[in-house]
Amino acid sequence: MSLEIRVSLERIATNLLTQFVDLESEGLDERINEALQTIGQNMGVDRGYIYLLRNDNKRFTRTHMWCSDKSKSGMDPPGTFPMQHFPGMERLNKGEAVHISRLTQLPPEAKVEKEILQQCQSVLLIPMLYGKLFAGFLGFDSGRVEKTWPDEITEPLKTVGKIFIIARQRRRTEAELRKSEEKYRNLVENINEVIFSLDPQGRLTYISPVIQQVALYTPEEIIGQPFTRFIYREDIPEFLVSLKHTRASHLEPHEFRMLSKQGNILHMRLSTRRVLEGDEPAGLTGLLIDITGQKLGEVLLDRAESKYQSIFANAAEGIFQSTADGKFIVANPACARILGYASAEELIIQDPDEQRGYFVDLSRYKEVQGVLEDHGAVQGYEVQVYRKDGSKIWVSLNARAIRNPNGELLFHEGTIQDITERKRAEDQIQYLSFHDKVTGLYNRAYFEEELFRLDTERQLPLSIVIGDVNGLKLINDAFGHQEGDKVISQVAKILTEFCRKEDVIARWGGDEFSIFLPRTSYGVTSEVIDRIKIACGEASRGPVKFSIALGAAT
Are residue 54 and residue 125 in the same domain, yes or no? Predict the structure, then answer.
């Protein structure tokens, strides 16, 4: 009987091998289930199934199953379970079959195995190997009666398992090839560049559909034609030389003109490489890129450069492009001159301070960087910068951030203008508007503004001292206004000497002075007044005598 079963199984294996050679992938699962049924019926079992290891190599998943009519009402074996819980796993890994003729006689510690193989009386498990790797197992069980199977049938069943595994692997490979083919076909047909192939005679054997967007020809109108038919006549000799170089393994891009279907001239860039079958040349394959727009841009750029180069070179303002960290990429002569360099070339090779660029104030540098990052531009930004010799100047900065379509920063560009003299004039005007010309002290206008600013609870106690120089009119009449101004200046110097830095001292007008002392009590103020009077008395020892009258309120 065992010999009959073995012969029958060998015949089934042979038939399967023949059938699976040309079997379409779509019908594989159905054919495997039919084979399980045929084998199961020949062996007189109730169920046949296949479990394969998942990709994580930790769990089994049931992929196929057949049940006899008498066992369909029973419970199916689990769809998935952990590898380490499976009975006989060590033997299966070694490629050995596992035969359990009486499940009820398994020891009590085999509780997990009994749960997995529930409703079975006898089980036969056949390892499925892919090469030398364990991939899963074939299982056959009897749920109604106990059965034993001769060892002779395990080899034919192992062969069946190998056939199943190889067939499934072939299906997986075919699916991956179809996916890969679809991927690359989509890539070839949808990229902007034209992909083509030539036979050894220079005829087109393939050209991607994008050619219709470039030259208005359909692929069908071009394939089979000599490539030279579509090339501008004057460029054909150089084109043929380029192909000759490619056949000699000299891979060099070549530019030529091509005629569209409407007769328009297109500028193209060609990259080719030879195709070999064994050691024999089988043609060429390559890439065509439409550079008509680029060529037009180059012409327009040449015209623009010749037009604006003079403006760039002779502008009074500094014009520049720089990296994000302040290193100049492009600069005109005025930009170099403003920053104290002999030429733009000398400026460009310099490496600015990594933390502040050319800026004097680090915080102003960070402020400019932040505005450019957030808003994309700064306009009329006045800031101090270092020149080559370390001196400081004021510039007015206009700049903007140039970004690519993805929003990534390419560089900054803008202008700078030297406004040092203007800033000095503004500072001088500002100084004169709030200072007395004779003494250098604050004037009445500034003092009145400070009174409002400092009149807060935080400045208490507040003290104000009012004073005037005694006999200034007599000094002016007797010795002249020049001597009177000297006295006024001497008094101002004494007041400054005996007051604090935070005190506000002002010449109110003529011979009058005012002092504002924040956070100063009346007693301290009185001491200050006494010291000032003593100092004035000590200073009044020459022919020009003077004194000062002072009063205070707190």
Answer: yes
Instruction: Tell me what pLDDT residue 331 has.
Output: 93
Q: Torsion over CA of 219, 225, 226 and 228, rounded to 10 degrees?
A: -60
443 lies in the same domain as 464: yes
Does residue 179 fall inside a structural domain? no
CA distance 49 to 32: 10
**Do 143 and 61 sit in the same domain of this protein?**
yes
Quick check: is 280 in a domain?
yes
How far is CA 364 from each of CA 105, 188, 358, 361, 445, rounded to the nearest angstrom? 87, 52, 11, 5, 31
8 Å CB contact between 97 and 127: yes
Question: Does residue 354 sit within a domain?
Answer: yes
Q: Torsion angle of alpha carbons 283, 289, 295, 296, nearest 10°?
A: 140
For residue 137, give the H/E element and its range. strand 133-142
Beta bridge partners of 413: 321, 400
Distance CA 17, CA 234 (A): 63
Q: Is residue 181 part of a domain?
A: no
CATH, residue 133 = 3.30.450.40
**E strands, 201-356, in order:** 204-207, 254-259, 265-277, 280-290, 318-322, 328-331
pTM, full prediction = 0.39
Backbone phi, psi, residue 243, to 5°: -65, -35
Query: By CB neighbour count within 10 A (0-12 exposed, 13-18 middle, 19+ buried), where does 143 fall?
Result: buried
- What the block records as the tokens of 401 is 């951030």
**Same domain? 52 vs 159:** yes
What is the span of the domain harbouring residue 244? 191-295
Q: Residue 492 — pLDDT band, cuts 50, 70, 90? A: very high
Q: pLDDT grade, residue 341 (50/70/90)?
A: very high
* Cβ contacts of 10 within 8 Å, gap of 6 or more: 156, 159
Q: Output the domain CATH number for residue 274.
A: 3.30.450.20
pLDDT at 18: 73
Packed helices 444-454 and 420-434: angle between N→C axes, nearest 10 degrees: 80
> Are 448 and 393 members of one domain?
no
Domains contained in the chain, number: 4
The DSSP annotation for 517-536 comes to: ETT--HHHHHHHHHHHHHHH
Model confidence at 275: pLDDT above 60 = yes
